[in-house]
């Protein structure tokens, strides 16, 4: 644990995910003593890795793209560039039982793969024109205020209006599965935002994705098993209440705080926020996620990093990732690690189902959706693991980004309690990181202004 002393006023960060620890690190760089309080028994949040029998299972963040410039800047500032490497970026999409493979940085593969008929070329040209037109507003470092004007239709409606049936069924629909969702429920902004991931180089970390959060935690004062119950702004600072089982409740004071937790939890801990802000946070439409990992003692022949399933191929299964194809170190030598992700209605139906049954249900889904792969997994399985996220991703329907814009505008930049998290921007790892940096900047401004005012007084 590195508790590098700063010369500025002390700051408390609540939540040791990528947003919170990025905020803490940037504040520490600026000279503030920072203390991070984390309710779990280890730091990392969704950018965490679990090991079972030599398999390294990245729990949420698995796909990292080269236009995550803020994440790559953080990697450089930590001096851990040698832990990253360019990775395989082949994406497969199932159609009529066949996998059509596309290199993410080669949009022309969409034409050559056989996934789309030549009659869809005009629609593909229109899609590329739209992406080019809006790319300046579809940025990871944005609060999406500029893009909210596009938030007027679902991904399905956009496909009907601007593309064609083929692209709707075999591109827009499977890309929506990356959000555990389907086009009729999803804002068009999510689809447009996801397309750069299919038009970019990818990178990852050797062995495990939590290399980044582990390195951050090693440089910060992180208190784990610390359940924060209240964050309140008081004259000249903040007061943070937290507890640990079997120990007396604690109260700590600091010049300011960053709360980097899912929206509904942030609302519960920060009752001093404006009523409109609290209402927005309490009603954020998170959807649950259940995904299932399988370790097998023989690699399947599939070369893609992930295979997406249009609804026409399977109503519930969204994606199967081949984690050993993403980056090295995910499986023991000669073995493979695969993960099956569902669209969120399946997760809702089976949220209370025990893990063993979820594994058996997933085998059955594999038999329906990809019989050859199902046989391979069942013949060579030597590990299965079920991961559940209650707050998987935010389900953004049309109008939600406009509401997000108003929420961001309603936050007080002068408050000594600042928020961070992926709900403040596009729901992705790099966006969460950016909100942490933004919160750190605001905190520095608030604390500096307060110190100057106090000095003048």
UniProtKB/TrEMBL annotation:
Ordered alphabetically, the record's keywords are: Oxidoreductase
Keyword Ubl conjugation among record annotations: no
Its top-level enzyme class, in one word, is oxidoreductase
Question: Which GO molecular function entries does the Swiss-Prot or TrEMBL record give?
Answer: oxidoreductase activity
Which Pfam families does the record associate with it? Amino_oxidase (PF01593)
Query: Residue limits of the Amine oxidase domain?
Result: 18-443
Q: What is its EC number?
A: 1.-.-.-
Q: Name the chain's protein.
A: NAD(P)/FAD-dependent oxidoreductase
Organism for this UniProt entry: Streptomyces millisiae
């Amino acid at each position: 644990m590195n508790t590098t002393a700063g010369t500025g006023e002390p700051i408390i960060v609540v939540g040791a995910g990528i947003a919170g620890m990025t905020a803490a690190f940037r504040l520490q760089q600026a000279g503030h003593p920072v203390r991070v309080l984390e309710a779990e028994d280890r730091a990392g949040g969704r950018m965490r890795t679990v090991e079972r029998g030599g398999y390294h299972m990245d729990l949420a963040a698995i796909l990292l793209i080269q236009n995550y410039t803020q994440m790559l800047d953080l990697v450089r500032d930590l001096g851990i560039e040698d832990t990253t490497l360019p990775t395989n970026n082949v994406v497969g999409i199932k159609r009529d039982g066949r996998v059509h493979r596309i290199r993410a940085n080669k949009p022309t593969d969409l034409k050559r793969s056989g996934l789309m008929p030549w009659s869809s070329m005009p629609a593909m040209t229109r899609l590329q024109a739209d992406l080019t037109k809006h790319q300046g507003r579809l940025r990871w470092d944005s609060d999406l205020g500029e893009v909210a004007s596009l938030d007027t239709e679902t991904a399905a409606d956009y496909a009907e209006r601007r593309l064609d049936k083929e692209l709707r069924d075999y591109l827009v629909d499977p890309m929506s599965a990356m959000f555990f969702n389907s086009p009729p429920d999803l804002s068009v902004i999510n689809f447009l935002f996801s397309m750069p991931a299919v038009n970019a180089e990818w990178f990852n970390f050797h062995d495990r994705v939590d290399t980044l959060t582990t390195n951050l935690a090693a440089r910060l004062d992180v208190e784990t098993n610390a359940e924060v119950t209240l964050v309140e702004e008081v004259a000249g600072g903040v007061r943070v209440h937290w507890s640990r089982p079997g120990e007396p409740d604690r109260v700590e004071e600091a010049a300011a705080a960053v709360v980097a937790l899912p929206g509904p939890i942030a609302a519960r801990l920060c009752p001093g926020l404006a009523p409109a802000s609290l209402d927005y946070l309490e009603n954020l439409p998170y959807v649950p996620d259940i995904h299932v990992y399988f370790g097998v003692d023989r690699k399947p022949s599939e070369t893609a990093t992930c295979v997406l399933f249009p609804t026409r191929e399977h109503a519930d299964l969204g994606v199967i990732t081949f984690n050993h194809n993403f980056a090295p170190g995910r499986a023991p030598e000669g073995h493979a690690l695969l993960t099956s992700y569902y669209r969120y209605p399946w997760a809702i139906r089976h949220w209370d189902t025990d893990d063993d049954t979820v594994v058996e249900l997933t085998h059955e889904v594999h038999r329906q959706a990809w019989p050859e792969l199902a046989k391979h997994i069942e013949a060579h399985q030597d590990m299965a693991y079920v991961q559940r996220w209650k707050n998987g991703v935010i389900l953004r329907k049309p109008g939600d980004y406009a509401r997000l814009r108003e929420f961001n505008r309603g936050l007080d930049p002068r408050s000594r309690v600042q928020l961070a998290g992926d709900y403040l921007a596009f729901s992705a790892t790099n966006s969460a990181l950016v909100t942490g940096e933004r919160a750190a900047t605001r905190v520095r401004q608030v604390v500096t202004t307060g110190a100057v005012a106090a000095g003048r007084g």
